[in-house]
Amino acid sequence: MPLMLAYMSSSGKMYNFNFKTHEYNSGTFWQLDLSSVGGPEQPIFRSISALIQHYKSLVIDRGDGKSEIFPVD
Predict the structure, then answer these.
(1) What percent of the chain has pLDDT above 90?
(2) Is the CB of residue 68 less than 8 Å from the CB of residue 60?
């Protein structure tokens, strides 16, 4: 079973995002795949822990008094 991230938007809609892995000589890097919602290319991280820390501190201001972590809705 693939590792996925579940996300509920501010409107209550559920999303599931896949992870991409990138293999380099220096190791495996991780990236969240938002292509299912037409989202932009996301940053690449050296570990899942670093990826999680990034998204825990990220907020997108929708301009309508609501905020999102991912560009959905």
Answers:
(1) 66
(2) yes
DSSP state of 65: S
What is the rounded CA–CA span in Å between residue 5 and residue 55?
11
Structure tokens at 69: 């972590």
CA angle 3-17-50, nearest 5°?
A: 70
* Contact in structure between 72 and 9 (CB atoms under 8 Å): yes
> Residue 13 corresponds to which tokens in the numbers above?
């809609």
Give the Cα separation of 41 and 58 in Å (integer): 15
Q: What is the pLDDT of residue 25?
A: 96
- Segments in 1-73 forming alpha helices (H): 48-56
